[in-house]
Amino acid sequence: MSLRWPAFLRAPCRPSWRALALAALLGVGVAAGQAPLGAWLVALPAASGLLALAASSRAGWIGFAGGFGYAAAAMFWIVEPFMVEPEVYGWMAPFALVFMAAGMGAFWALGAGLGARLGRGRTGPRVVGVAVGLVASDALRSYVFTGFPWVLFGHLWIGTPVAQAAAFVGPIGLSLLTLALAAAPWLARSPRGRALGTGVAVVALAGLWAGGTARLAAPEAPRDPPVNLRLVQPNAPQALKWLPEYRLQFFYRHLDLTAEEPAPGKPRPDLVIWPETAVPFLLNDPGAGLKMVAEAAGGIPVALGIQREEGRRYYNSLAVIGADGSVGRVYDKVHLVPFGEYMPLGDLAAEFGIAAFAAQEGNGYSSGPGERLLDLGRLGRVEPLICYEAVFPQDIRRVPARPDWLMQVTNDAWFGELSGPWQHLAQARLRAIEFGLPLARAANTGVSAMIDAKGRVTDELGMGVEGVIDAPLPPALPETLYARTGDAPVMALLALLAALIFLAAPKWRVDLAARRV
């Protein structure tokens, strides 16, 4: 008896291989809109084509293929951590890329498949349903399994005036606007109707662009009192960072950069910021390290990424070091990277005698007690973000009061130089827009940047550069609508749209049939 594939893997349940290849190619086109390319003129038509293809075929399959191509192109940097020690972990890299892309494909398949079922017709309702379903997949991916809101549809506008809409609708709302523009040309079947839909999308995009441009041009009150920061970028390659013969060398590099005199015309900084895990000692066992930091800073406080131990647990932390080397405010990272900084369910497994992955046994980091503000006196109240935490706007909203500014310390050396660090920077820019707050970003190998409250980079150090940024902290804006409401309104709107599509689909189908007659 010959072996046969399950029915859902065979035609007609599965689209043709040509259709799947086209969907994957369109997914790659959508990925072109993400950093570092930012080619939204390619991404938006590709998204529109993908919606039409999904609406006219097996939507779940098309969604899977499109999501697979999208993730493989936008997130190929996922192989970079395995290449830090290629002789040990390099063999895992292709599996990581394939499984990650398949995971993205699964989210898109779920969204596209369920969305198409809402529409029930073959044209307008199905296109709108697929669009709503894919936005819902962005929302789902942002929250489930601790969340992974990376390269959302709406992120393709970062760096354009359209991104200013995030101050009102946030990242999920920006995804909804994006796929609404992509769906508009397909709401009618006739060439004239499609031309009209395309025209409506162009006019809507022009309105968003104009509104964002006006917001960018609006004047801002200067910060009072002024705050000047020094961002230190030591450029310590990850493959060398913790080797015994290099650890002290990189620590001394931090000290030398901290002690540099400001360039002519630049004021003395009020605070020096070092990147994530910047020092080769623990906070609770520093030896002479913290006094050396204070001496290099010459009386200026230093905020630095450092690890600390408490019992058998370890924490990825940020500490503010005073003029005498004393430890001031401390923040422990809350939102850890699963499989990178800890193993999910590791502590639970320890209850059954399997302690190899348990953070409580020192095998990985433990999560801090919660998001918090650091009161730096005259420098204001700052919300610290350690690396990955800058991609979660919902976490930033959990602090008990509004911060005056955001501080991100990160080590993006794990992610190569081509796309991962630039996408991480793009997300930091979007957080600044969403909350109307400036963000100071110190990165180990780049990109360090000063970002204003409208997401503009006012100063930066690129990838693979050793140096400092001496720059004034830009002023904050009034609290944004998104900062007050979060994602709840957009989630409610998605649910309402899904209900309306389901209810309107039969009538829509009858209307289309009447037009054909």
Automatic annotation (TrEMBL):
<keyword id="KW-0472">Membrane</keyword>
<comment type="function">
    <text>Catalyzes the phospholipid dependent N-acylation of the N-terminal cysteine of apolipoprotein, the last step in lipoprotein maturation.</text>
</comment>
<dbReference type="Pfam" id="PF20154">
    <property type="entry name" value="LNT_N"/>
</dbReference>
<protein>
    <recommendedName>
        <fullName>Apolipoprotein N-acyltransferase</fullName>
        <ecNumber>2.3.1.269</ecNumber>
    </recommendedName>
</protein>
<dbReference type="GO" id="GO:0005886">
    <property type="term" value="C:plasma membrane"/>
</dbReference>
<comment type="similarity">
    <text>Belongs to the CN hydrolase family. Apolipoprotein N-acyltransferase subfamily.</text>
</comment>
<dbReference type="InterPro" id="IPR036526">
    <property type="entry name" value="C-N_Hydrolase_sf"/>
</dbReference>
<keyword id="KW-0808">Transferase</keyword>
<keyword id="KW-0449">Lipoprotein</keyword>
<feature type="transmembrane region" description="Helical">
    <location>
        <begin position="127"/>
        <end position="153"/>
    </location>
</feature>
<feature type="transmembrane region" description="Helical">
    <location>
        <begin position="488"/>
        <end position="506"/>
    </location>
</feature>
<dbReference type="InterPro" id="IPR004563">
    <property type="entry name" value="Apolipo_AcylTrfase"/>
</dbReference>
<keyword id="KW-1003">Cell membrane</keyword>
<feature type="transmembrane region" description="Helical">
    <location>
        <begin position="195"/>
        <end position="218"/>
    </location>
</feature>
<dbReference type="InterPro" id="IPR045378">
    <property type="entry name" value="LNT_N"/>
</dbReference>
<dbReference type="InterPro" id="IPR003010">
    <property type="entry name" value="C-N_Hydrolase"/>
</dbReference>
<feature type="transmembrane region" description="Helical">
    <location>
        <begin position="59"/>
        <end position="79"/>
    </location>
</feature>
<dbReference type="GO" id="GO:0016410">
    <property type="term" value="F:N-acyltransferase activity"/>
</dbReference>
<feature type="transmembrane region" description="Helical">
    <location>
        <begin position="91"/>
        <end position="115"/>
    </location>
</feature>
<keyword id="KW-0012">Acyltransferase</keyword>
<dbReference type="Pfam" id="PF00795">
    <property type="entry name" value="CN_hydrolase"/>
</dbReference>
<feature type="domain" description="CN hydrolase">
    <location>
        <begin position="232"/>
        <end position="475"/>
    </location>
</feature>
<dbReference type="GO" id="GO:0042158">
    <property type="term" value="P:lipoprotein biosynthetic process"/>
</dbReference>
<feature type="transmembrane region" description="Helical">
    <location>
        <begin position="20"/>
        <end position="47"/>
    </location>
</feature>
<comment type="pathway">
    <text>Protein modification; lipoprotein biosynthesis (N-acyl transfer).</text>
</comment>
<keyword id="KW-1133">Transmembrane helix</keyword>
<feature type="transmembrane region" description="Helical">
    <location>
        <begin position="165"/>
        <end position="188"/>
    </location>
</feature>
<keyword id="KW-0812">Transmembrane</keyword>
